[in-house]
Amino acid sequence: MKAFIVFTRIPLEHKTKTRLLPYYTPKQCVGLHIAMLKDLARTLNGLDASVKTYIYYLPEGDVSIIKNIFGDDKTYREQRGEDLGDKMYNAISEVLAEGAEAVSLSGTDIPLLLAEDIESSFTFLENNDIVLSPTEDGGYYLVGMKKANKEIFDIEGYGTGSVFENTKQKIEDMGLSLGTGRRLRDIDTKEDIKAYYGIIRTDLDFRKTHTAIFLKENKSIAIIIPTYNEEETIVSLMNQLKGIKDRCEIVFVDGGSTDNTAKLIEESKFRLLHSKKGRNNQMNLGALSVEADILFFLHCDSTLPPNPLKEILDLMEVYRAGCFGIAFKSLSPLMFICRYISNHRVFDRKVMFGDQGIVIDRDLFMEIGMYPDLPIMEDYQLSLTLKEKGIKLGMARHRIYTSTRRFKGGPIRKLRLMWKMNRLRAKYRRGVNIEEISAMYKDVR
């Protein structure tokens, strides 16, 4: 008989995944643990029928929580021992004494663990005394043996970055043969979670797992809104945001409005910061004031689609930066053309503008130096910088509607303005002084 032992805690707040606090709340830590247990249960169900599974758990909480996940066909036992090494030795020794020919043991925080990894550990044991499978952080997530050996668990500093190497050295010093499984990443820290965001973007199979879905849905979002003389639009936007304010952080950054904008912002519901004028200054201040995983820069004259947070999470599941498509509250054929050109530009020229609602990974935003110190074209330069770094842009499923206050007048005036904006961008690309370009761009507020 071959046996596989799972070492786990019962998912309880303030007991499980505590190294993720305060990045995750205690409730989120439990949710992540449960998601990983569900994925492991599916992996165990894919094992060869000759492998018997044991679940060894810490004696705290209601064991029915994990029984409901793993099923009644597993053998459940409490962990015994003073420390982790002692507990692992006792479990392996116990199962070997019951007639198992080979035993492998693993924890529950390796989302990429496959049935093949477990079964290959038994293959290694056919020709080796010990098998170890390393983690990215210097530990190991799987250990297997045919004879109980207490000495290899007498390693100081479990949870440090030298456990695998120290254990490997001890095995070699004892004259035992070692088989090594593939290296995988566990989830213990905020940095591990961020690494798994990258895996989600590239691994379609992993994207379907309980763990990946949980990680995606629990990304935090901050909405940052620069304001300047927006008393005509601010109330409408706040009304849209009230329905989602409990699921994200919302920060208004006023650039010295001379009207009633700042007074109208409901500080009991939203955060209000003050900055010198300039969208770049305002948005950078807002970004520095939050810890969210995702930054969403939104203009005040925007109308959001239904479920904007879900659209953002869906977008950022695959991309590190992107935007919503744009539409205008106008039946003018020219505005339909402007809409088409703006949305097509995201994929054709890799350029997005602020009125499309820019969405970006916070770490990426900080890595590129935030918005550049420019009085105008800050969103254009942001896109150019992302393009230089090879960052692909995505687009959310639905559109943001924005006002046409800059496009007042008849068709001729609209065409002239569109041509002017195109010319200003061309001047910027040619290196024309930014103050000269800014002087040509008249603020409509």
Automatic annotation (TrEMBL):
What UniProt keywords are attached to this protein's entry?
Answer: Carotenoid biosynthesis, Cell membrane, Glycosyltransferase, Membrane, Transferase
Which residues belong to any copy of the Glycosyltransferase 2-like domain? 223-324
Instruction: Please verify whether the record's keywords include Repeat.
Output: no
Highest taxon in the source lineage: Bacteria
Q: Which InterPro entries match?
A: Glyco_trans_2-like, Nucleotide-diphossugar_trans, Trfase_1_rSAM/seldom-assoc, Trfase_2_rSAM/seldom_assoc
Please give the PANTHER family that the UniProt record associates with this protein. GLYCOSYLTRANSFERASE (PTHR43646), GLYCOSYLTRANSFERASE 2-LIKE DOMAIN-CONTAINING PROTEIN (PTHR43646:SF2)
State what this protein does: Catalyzes the glycosylation of 4,4'-diaponeurosporenoate, i.e. the esterification of glucose at the C1'' position with the carboxyl group of 4,4'-diaponeurosporenic acid, to form glycosyl-4,4'-diaponeurosporenoate. This is a step in the biosynthesis of staphyloxanthin, an orange pigment present in most staphylococci strains.
* Family, per entry: Belongs to the glycosyltransferase 2 family. CrtQ subfamily.
Put simply, this protein is called 4,4'-diaponeurosporenoate glycosyltransferase
